[in-house]
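PROTOCOL LOG
Step 1. Enter all chains and additional molecules of the complex.
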Amino acid sequence: MRWQDWKSARLPPNTRSAEFKTVNKKIQIGVLAFQGDVAEHIEAVKNAAVKLRRNVSVVPVREQRDLTGLNGLIIPGGESTTFYKLCQREGIFGEIKKIKNILGTCAGAIMLSKNAQNKTKDQVTLQLMDVEVARNAYGRQNDSFEADISTTLGAMHAMFIRAPKITRTGKNVRVLAEHEGEIIACEEDSKGKYYLALAFHPELTTTLFHEHFLHKVFANS
Ligand code: GLN
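Step 2. Run joint prediction.
Step 3. Record the structure below.
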């Protein structure tokens, strides 16, 4: 049998091209690159894409033009006040608010929050996700810690570096992990927007959350 005949005998018209399109869909992820584990997040996204066998490109974001064509953004840990100031300086604070899928870790989770306690004077968050956080609520830099945690995605080791506490979650927010009574991972998937907030630094120990994020971005793109 010729290939053309075999193909049309087995599949209804257009099935192959539709399948081909889904499998080959390509998304672009940005990593806000002012400070923090930028290289580690880029690496984690690449590794997650290999594990999922999906087509993902990942770029550092420092200025307006880097935001073009992004399907999702990662805001790493660092210092949320500094992130706010640099986003303002580069004129991208408002543009970031329009991105449909955002993963925020630690300072990034503070950036995502609707409300943050213990902010510095003049600090503003993106106010995208219906959660409230308390900055530096575990104490000073010296009080940073590691822990084995269990999450809805599986068990993992996690680093908490002057982490915030997630103190309130809205009705559309789903908790993905808790540690010693505190929420440490949660997501909000509603109205075509997807936000994932983590109090710890997954990029140092696992790709599970990056894989989960990529799944959601593919579904949403
Ligand atoms: N303490 C930092 C802040 O308030 C967050 C720490 C981190 O991202 N590791 O922004």
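Step 4. Note key features.
The CA atoms of residues 147 and 158 lie 5 Å apart.
The chain has one domain: 27-219.
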